[in-house]
Design a protein that fits this description.
alpha+beta; Uridine Diphospho-n-acetylenolpyruvylglucosamine Reductase, domain 2; Uridine Diphospho-n-acetylenolpyruvylglucosamine Reductase, domain 3; six-stranded antiparallel β-sheet; 26% helix; 23% strand; globular
Length: 356
């Protein structure tokens, strides 16, 4: 996948016939398109009086697909206190939370209401220790707190370098910490839930909660936290002796080598687009079903099913969000005809009013 933070789409419509029946999956309170546009402008003017430097109107939304429209309002709070103020000011409005822009497709018409980017909430701390240099040279549990806007790949690299085990299985997943926990991101080597001690979050009214792992309804690509906005996550990792750290670093390299050989990481993509379904009590590979249905290299406009991994969609110059939506629907229909199962999207899809 391309390096660097992705750029937003240009907001232009596609002019392509809409065959999609997907529905938006942002976490929101919605009052309808016209109401949001009017209310968004009115509330935006009020907010700008006190928080003008963190609010942007008609703002591009950065995603790994690099397509899609704009946000009516985009806010980048610099602290949990500013986030709480925004939640209270926009109470009753549609609110969508942006992670790292991976696993997200924004429609060409953009998204109404308020989009929250937590990119400035990105601190990482080793609890009880002053950075990696002070970690003990013995096997012991270390608790690491990461704010929601911290990037998962950076945290994995940092902790692995400092001799901490517990996140290597997530190598190659482009996500913010909040986004990864929200969807319980993972892959062939495990999910993020297995390394979590607790999650701290705000309710839509701005109240703070800390929830221990055992009280979170983690499941495959699910956390049950859609009613909250994650602000930080505490992980339980293992500090290992210096003599064994080379093996831990090699494990991360092995995961990354596997990902690079089996996924189109150098192309514009959003990761796996469909969840692996359950057939006869067993979870099976969506990519394999898509491949068996003859969809590899299937193309609609500028969107194409990857020939490296069939559960990835890659984009070409001129691609629009509508191209991707229509390709997703075509793939679903072909898999349903071949295997009598309807694939469920793994990516979030943001659209005005929550509709296609």
């Amino acid at each position: 996948m391309p390096s660097g933070r992705p750029a937003g789409g240009d907001g232009r419509g596609s002019g392509v016939e809409d065959r999609s029946r997907f529905h938006g999956s942002s976490h929101e309170c919605s009052r309808g398109v016209a109401g949001h546009r009017a209310a968004g402008a009115e509330v935006g003017r009020a907010v700008n009086a006190t928080l003008s430097d963190i609010i942007e109107a008609n703002a591009p939304i950065p995603t790994w697909f690099r397509v899609g429209g704009k946000a009516d309002l985009l806010a980048r709070p610099r602290s949990v206190e500013e986030l709480r103020d925004l939640l209270r000011m926009f109470a009753g409005e549609r609110i969508s939370v942006l992670g790292d822009g991976a696993n997200l497709l924004v429609d060409d018409e953009g998204v109404d209401g308020l989009v929250l980017s937590l990119e400035h909430l990105n601190r990482v701390e080793y609890l009880g220790f002053d950075g990696g240099a002070a970690l003990p040279d013995r096997a012991t549990t270390i608790f690491v707190r990461a704010e929601a806007g911290a990037r998962l790949p950076k945290l994995i690299t940092q902790t692995n370098r400092d001799g901490l085990e517990g996140l290597e299985h997530l190598g190659g997943i482009p996500a913010s910490i909040g986004g990864a926990v929200f969807m319980n991101a993972g892959g062939a080597f495990g999910d993020i839930a297995q390394s979590i001690e607790s999650v701290t979050a705000l309710t839509r009214l701005g109240d703070e909660l800390t929830i221990p792992h055992d009280e979170i309804n983690f499941d495959y690509r699910h956390s049950g936290l859609s009613w909250l906005i994650i602000t930080s996550v505490e992980f339980h990792l293992e500090s290992i002796p210096e003599a064994k750290r080379a093996a831990a670093r090699q494990r991360l390299k092995d995961v990354m080598t596997y990902k690079k050989s089996s996924q189109p990481l150098r192309e514009d993509s959003a990761g796996c687009v469909f969840k692996n379904p359950v057939l006869s009590g067993t979870r099976v590979s969506a990519g394999k079903l898509i491949d068996q249905s003859g969809c590899k290299r299937l193309r609609v406009g500028g969107a194409e099913v990857s020939d490296i991994h069939a559960n990835f969609i890659v984009t070409h110059p001129g691609c629009t969000a509508r191209d991707i939506l229509n390709l997703l629907e075509e793939v679903r229909e072909r898999v349903e005809r071949s295997h009598s199962i309807r694939l469920e999207p793994e990516i979030a899809i943001w659209q005005r009013g929550g509709k296609a």
